[in-house]
């Protein structure tokens, strides 16, 4: 596998042919891969609107923010587009542990010629901005305020990154692209669903050129994805089971959005559940080990009711349900 070079894309691909969306857009791409290019998932299902926004980000250097509930595959969507363009890609999670020094850089002690010297090491932003890389800022709305202002200058088209600590000005590479994913579009934890998210400066949100929402797949589409990942379930009985699994997953998502439960089943969880069914040969046992045990015991009666609605049987013992209700 070839290593990442400083050269930009050298070919163009048809968005309609590669991604199956109704557009005449030609997107820059790389003819060869590199170690930073994500692996292609041949079973991945692209959302047309979100794919169009991401492709516009790559083709026209538009800063693109993808919003949606967790587990919808926001970051994966960007990665799978990048994979088919052979575009180097890097993800960073803007959790509370990411500091300004992590993004900008800091002085580091090194040993050179058996002597200890201090040398400035570029942080994530200057390193990636100087290269043909798609940088994904995960959990964008969870970033600390002092960290977010470091990013603000890069959000402007052709915006330069000024490192005041070293009196350096970094001109972004022409093929540098910036994406982000968020749960709340900078509005904070209004519904109590995402603790730790911040109310972001609206002047910064305004700098994002494109904002698009990614929702969960349609039930029939999600079922096809599960069957593609767990082909042993592609039988008459298995397809019925997977349909029931997707049904309860959607019920948990609705209950989560209304605040009735604090944990939902993402498509990834459904796939894991289907895989665990192969191990335990019992959907109920696999459900408990895959999802139920991750949930607050006080919410078990609600989840038990959802399971009963889809499978016509209870997933937990009556004593356990009562214990959860008393908490």
UniProtKB/TrEMBL annotation:
<dbReference type="Pfam" id="PF08406">
    <property type="entry name" value="CbbQ_C"/>
</dbReference>
<comment type="similarity">
    <text>Belongs to the CbbQ/NirQ/NorQ/GpvN family.</text>
</comment>
<dbReference type="InterPro" id="IPR050764">
    <property type="entry name" value="CbbQ/NirQ/NorQ/GpvN"/>
</dbReference>
<feature type="domain" description="CbbQ/NirQ/NorQ C-terminal">
    <location>
        <begin position="235"/>
        <end position="291"/>
    </location>
</feature>
<feature type="domain" description="ATPase dynein-related AAA">
    <location>
        <begin position="65"/>
        <end position="188"/>
    </location>
</feature>
<dbReference type="GO" id="GO:0051116">
    <property type="term" value="F:cobaltochelatase activity"/>
</dbReference>
<dbReference type="InterPro" id="IPR013615">
    <property type="entry name" value="CbbQ_C"/>
</dbReference>
<dbReference type="GO" id="GO:0016887">
    <property type="term" value="F:ATP hydrolysis activity"/>
</dbReference>
<protein>
    <submittedName>
        <fullName>Aerobic cobaltochelatase subunit CobS</fullName>
        <ecNumber>6.6.1.2</ecNumber>
    </submittedName>
</protein>
<dbReference type="InterPro" id="IPR027417">
    <property type="entry name" value="P-loop_NTPase"/>
</dbReference>
<dbReference type="Pfam" id="PF12556">
    <property type="entry name" value="CobS_N"/>
</dbReference>
<dbReference type="GO" id="GO:0005524">
    <property type="term" value="F:ATP binding"/>
</dbReference>
<dbReference type="Pfam" id="PF07728">
    <property type="entry name" value="AAA_5"/>
</dbReference>
<keyword id="KW-0547">Nucleotide-binding</keyword>
<keyword id="KW-0067">ATP-binding</keyword>
<feature type="domain" description="Cobaltochelatase subunit CobS N-terminal">
    <location>
        <begin position="9"/>
        <end position="35"/>
    </location>
</feature>
<dbReference type="InterPro" id="IPR011704">
    <property type="entry name" value="ATPase_dyneun-rel_AAA"/>
</dbReference>
<keyword id="KW-0436">Ligase</keyword>
<dbReference type="InterPro" id="IPR025865">
    <property type="entry name" value="CobS_N_dom"/>
</dbReference>
